[in-house]
Amino acid sequence: MKNQNIYKQAKIHLRITRTLNLSVFRKVVVVLFIVGIVLYTVLFTTYPPVHDYFHQLRHSLMVIPCH
User: Fold this and answer.
1) Helix %, strand %, coil % for the chain, to 5?
2) Which residues, including other chains, have CB under 8 Å from residue 43's CB and lie 6 or more apart?
3) Which pTM was predicted?
4) Does position 10 have pLDDT exceeding 70, yes or no?
5) What are the sequence ranges of the domains in the chain?
């Protein structure tokens, strides 16, 4: 009887752990995707308002040519 309780609790714990790990993975993917979009927009865009605002940053990094 006691072993069945332990097995049941372990099974529940494993299911919860898998759910949490999967949700953390999804959150990390979403955050990295958003960070990638923001960095691309800031560093590589040619849209004039964004380009002009970050112009000095682009030059100070000396990685991204803009002229």
Assistant:
1) 85, 0, 15
2) 54, 57, 58, 61, 64
3) 0.58
4) yes
5) 2-61
